[in-house]
Write a structure and sequence with these properties.
Length: 460
């Protein structure tokens, strides 16, 4: 009997996921634990393992399409076995189990999300193929379309296609505003189409990629439209945001709108700590500046627990544990791996945990549960040569610390001007939970700890 493969439940907020790639082909043998397909979530691209063995006899949801949680996406069975006639569930459908299929909340009848792969999270597109000799019809997605069906005669459409133009903006003179051939010719004459200089390769590419020639500016000799001009027009087309980018946009917009942000900045003299770090490095201890910043934050959050809190606008919740988020940049967006119960870790353990999570984040191997539940976040741009910046609070937290680069800066010391390595740190706080005096006390406590070298000599 064939075995249905279901879209697994990925997290609390993921009810629909697109399949990026199938790793098995129809008829191919599948062993328990083999990777069946890849899905894109709001935070990463995940590999989904099979819980069953058999042959892949049917793919219900092909790559590039989305399916709701617990929907059937494929069937495993014996070679030659006929799969049930099941249509793909619409991606807009609620995440419900398929009729007649027993399931549980973990979606274990389909597969489980496995490690995250460092791949482009955009959905794959079809290959470009060979350059056609006959112009292809312009796709509606290539250019903005008018509401409703475009009224155009077959001869007018054929002329628009062979000319590689978009006819949707042409005023029709036929019955009910229908675009006829003479309307297209008048449009071409009015736009000086016959005077355009277009290389054959550029026109063929425009036809293949459905680019409107009249919207392209030629950069070749005498304004000749070249292949590079078509490629530039293709690159400028609007592209859908990845799920990760959509999630970042939604969550940070929510944070800015609902949390009244204010900022407090102090300058930290890192001279003594950098010297101590260098001495420790000669002894084989490879601590980073981030390690000391994280440890200073952890200690200060325990001293000022109000900052380690969250609110729904009606009540406040103080968190007994420090679940420390470490903002990490990736080519496809920003992720925040979480060091859980960070207050229980020694400096060595904190260093190891931060290093491992940051590496997994950059390689795209974090699991969704490793990127949720933080109570305070540190965003360190010290390696990017920035003097100062502010960060947006992650929803569910009351503050975030932005750490800038350590730069040689003239400062006043005992009535003299000296150059010291100064690092600016800025605390962004939710004014519903944290007032100005508390934020100042918090950020200055971090400053004091980082400048007190005796505190660290006992730790390294």
């Amino acid at each position: 009997m064939s075995q249905p493969i279901l879209m697994p439940k990925l997290g609390q907020s993921d009810e629909v996921a697109p399949i990026v790639k199938w790793r098995k082909r129809i008829g191919e043998a599948v062993n328990k634990g083999d990777i069946l397909f890849e899905i894109e979530t709001e935070k990463a691209v995940l590999e989904v393992e099979s819980f069953y063995a058999g042959n892949l006899i049917k793919i219900v949801v092909p790559a590039g399409q989305a399916a709701p949680v617990n929907a059937i996406v494929a069937f495993l069975g014996k070679p030659g076995e006929k799969a049930p006639d099941v249509a793909a569930a619409p991606a807009s459908a609620a995440a419900t189990a398929s009729p007649g299929v027993e399931h549980n909340s973990g979606g274990r009848h389909g597969g489980r999300p496995s490690r995250v792969e460092n791949k482009d999270s955009a959905l794959p597109s079809g290959g470009s193929g060979s350059v056609p000799t006959v112009a292809a019809p312009l796709a509606a997605s290539a250019v903005p379309s008018k509401p409703g069906r475009l009224l155009i005669s077959p001869r007018a459409r054929a002329l628009a296609n062979t000319s590689c133009i978009d006819p949707s903006g042409i005023a029709g003179s036929g019955p009910d505003g229908r675009i006829v051939e003479k309307d297209v010719r008048a449009h071409l004459d009015a736009r000086g189409y016959d005077k355009l200089r277009i290389s054959p390769a550029a026109k063929a590419l425009a036809a293949q990629q459905k680019v409107d020639i009249l919207a392209v500016t030629g950069t070749g000799e005498g304004g000749r439209i070249m292949t590079e001009d078509i490629q530039r027009a293709m690159a400028e087309r609007p592209k859908p945001l990845t799920l990760m980018r959509q999630t970042i946009a939604r969550r940070l917009t929510q944070s800015v709108v609902t949390s009244p942000h204010f900022y407090v900045t102090v300058s930290v003299d890192m001279g003594d700590l950098l010297k101590l770090r260098q001495e420790a490095k000669t002894r084989g201890s490879d601590y980073s500046v981030t390690d000391f910043i994280l440890e200073a934050c952890i200690m200060t959050l325990q001293e000022v627990p109000e900052v380690n809190s969250s609110t729904d606008g009606q009540s406040v919740r103080w968190h007994a544990s420090v679940h420390l988020g470490l903002a990490t940049s990736r080519p496809d967006g920003l992720v925040v791996p979480v060091i859980r119960d960070a207050q229980k870790l020694t400096l060595v353990e904190l260093h190891q945990a931060a290093k491992a999570l940051a590496a997994r984040a950059r390689d795209g191997k974090l699991l969704p549960e490793e990127m949720s539940g933080s109570t305070f976040t540190v965003s360190n741009m010290g390696m990017l040569n920035v003097e100062n910046f502010t960060a947006i609070i992650n929803p569910g937290e009351s503050a975030i610390l932005a750490v800038s680069s350590t730069l040689p800066t003239p400062v006043a010391r005992d009535g003299n001007v000296v150059v010291r390595p100064i690092m600016k740190i800025t605390l962004a706080s939710d004014h519903r939970l944290v007032d100005g005096a508390m934020a100042a006390r918090f950020v200055n406590a971090i400053k004091t700890k980082l400048e007190d070298v005796s505190l660290w000599t006992r730790s390294i």
